[in-house]
């Protein structure tokens, strides 16, 4: 099925998110929509999917003009969408989520759940997904949840499939698997719109590339274009794709983690006897495939895990046993890996989210009274400094793009006086221009003498930022190696081989 967008324009008050955008996607084609955060990519696809109604322009499928009153109309017309933030109900099973909104019934009005199970098994077999139809969504890793989203779209015979930032929450291995799935869908004749800002992915799978900047189409490019050319077209300026940093000058020991063990509510060991020391003025990157204890390690430091044994000492102060509030007050800045669940309050404004760590103290509160003028000045300054794309500081954070939400978290955490900075997946969902900015801020934080822990599944990011790299596998640190360790060595360590085994 051929998709064509003609002159699509969408405004939100004075903000024009999409400005007369034209786009054509042919059957059996992967058409990449490339752009920085806030460029209007997701808005355009939400118009296509019936979530928004365009102010101007029209949508055509096989040269026939469409009128979508909502997502149901788009789905019935053959359009499927895999959202950046999954549209799944955690307590429902895979089969229940797949049939949601498209419920088939048997005699007597009883839901035909077995038909949904059969559909899940058929599509899973077709793509090698190996997904249990009766598994609950909340029990599945994010990579598997995304496959459920794909199954949900394909179960309705989608001929046009939109992937909106699909790799933002995936490991490198899961990303490679998704690329293979997209190629298979393309070979079957599906028209695919792939929204991203990751240049490697674009060049790997795109047949054609359309670049959007500030709501307008600014050009088209071939997959053979260099990363520098794509980045420049996307951001509107030359972008450094490498991290410029001097050698670290580590100071005294700042953080000492000793024999740290974290267990879950049934006694399963999540972090297994981990010990390491972090010095002032160095970046320790924690690498590993998602789910090997990195999340629980950072949560233990932050007081978010309650079944903790061992010791975590920051500048002579024991953190184990302290509340999260106490850890924050000790000067620890924290960027959690899931910004929507743990980093922000979606119904709060940008300004309100920027003061979450300091809502009890000056300059935002005096004598128990909120100082609105001080908050407004601070928020306006940080929105500008971190290039948060929004209508204003009163915009609710839940309405921002994923990348702009991440910028709000970073702005808040890097605007305090810190003794330790922990960033889990700090550039997840960010475009190349924003990544460049974040990396510079992390290096500047290190250079100011603050110890930094960066948890990332992106090996390019790990090798670019790290002074030392700790690789986690099944809850253990199986080795701490220099920051210039080759990617292939790190990859073997992430699969469970110790540094000595790799060397042998």
Automatic annotation (TrEMBL):
It comes from the Bacteria. It is a peripheral membrane protein. Coiled coil: none annotated. Its main location: membrane. Keywords: ATP-binding, Cell membrane, Membrane, Nucleotide-binding, Repeat, Translocase, Transport. Residues 3-239, 255-499 form the ABC transporter domain. GO terms for molecular function: ATP binding; ATP hydrolysis activity. It is found in: Cell membrane. CDD domains: ABC_Carb_Monos_I (cd03216), ABC_Carb_Monos_II (cd03215). GO terms for cellular component: plasma membrane. PANTHER family: CARBOHYDRATE TRANSPORT ATP-BINDING PROTEIN MG119-RELATED, GUANOSINE IMPORT ATP-BINDING PROTEIN NUPO. This is Nucleoside ABC transporter ATP-binding protein. It comes from Microcella putealis.
């Amino acid at each position: 099925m051929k998709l064509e967008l003609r002159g699509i324009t969408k405004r939100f008050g004075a903000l024009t998110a999409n400005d007369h955008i034209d786009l054509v996607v042919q059957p059996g084609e992967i058409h990449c929509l490339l752009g920085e955060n806030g460029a209007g990519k997701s808005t355009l696809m939400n118009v296509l999917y019936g979530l928004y109604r365009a102010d101007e322009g029209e949508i055509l499928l096989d040269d026939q003009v469409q009128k979508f009153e909502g997502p149901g109309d788009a789905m019935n017309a053959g359009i499927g969408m895999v959202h950046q933030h999954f549209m799944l109900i955690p307590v429902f099973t895979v089969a229940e989520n797949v049939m949601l909104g498209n419920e088939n019934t048997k005699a007597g009005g009883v839901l035909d759940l077995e038909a949904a199970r059969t559909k899940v098994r058929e599509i899973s077999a077709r793509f090698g997904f190996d997904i249990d139809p009766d598994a609950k969504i909340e029990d599945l890793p994010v990579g598997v949840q995304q496959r459920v989203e794909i199954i949900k779209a394909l179960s309705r015979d989608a001929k046009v499939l939109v992937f909106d930032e699909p790799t933002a929450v995936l490991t490198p291995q899961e990303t490679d698997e998704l690329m293979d799935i997209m190629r298979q869908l393309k070979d079957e004749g599906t028209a695919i719109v792939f929204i991203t800002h990751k240049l490697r992915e674009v060049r790997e799978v795109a047949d054609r590339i359309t670049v959007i900047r500030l709501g307008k189409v600014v050009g088209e490019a071939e997959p053979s274009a260099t990363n520098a050319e794509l980045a420049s077209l996307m951001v509107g300026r030359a972008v450094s794709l490498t991290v410029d940093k001097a050698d670290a000058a580590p100071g005294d020991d700042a953080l000492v983690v000793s024999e740290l063990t974290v267990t879950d509510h049934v006694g399963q060991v999540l972090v297994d006897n981990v010990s390491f020391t972090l010095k002032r003025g160095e970046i320790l990157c924690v690498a590993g495939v998602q789910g090997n204890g990195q999340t629980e390690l950072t949560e233990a430091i932050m007081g978010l895990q309650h079944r903790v044994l061992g010791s975590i000492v920051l500048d002579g102060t024991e953190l184990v046993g302290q509340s999260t509030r106490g850890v924050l007050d000790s000067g620890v800045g924290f960027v959690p890996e899931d910004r929507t669940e743990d980093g922000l309050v979606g119904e709060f404004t940008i300004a309100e989210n920027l003061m979450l760590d300091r809502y009890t103290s000056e300059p935002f509160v005096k004598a128990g009274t909120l100082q609105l003028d001080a908050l407004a000045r601070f928020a306006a300054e940080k929105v500008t400094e971190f290039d948060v794309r929004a209508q204003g500081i009163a915009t609710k954070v839940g309405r921002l793009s994923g990348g702009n939400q991440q910028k709000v978290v970073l702005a808040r955490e890097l605007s305090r006086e810190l003794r330790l900075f922990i960033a889990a997946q700090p550039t997840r969902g960010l475009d190349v221009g924003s990544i460049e900015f974040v990396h510079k801020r992390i290096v500047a934080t290190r250079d100011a003498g603050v110890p930094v822990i960066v948890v990332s599944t992106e090996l390019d990011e790990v090798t670019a930022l790290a002074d030392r790299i700790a690789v986690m596998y099944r809850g253990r640190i199986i080795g701490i190696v220099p920051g210039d360790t080759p990617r292939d060595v790190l990859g073997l360590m992430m699969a469970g081989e110790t540094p000595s085994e790799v060397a042998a």
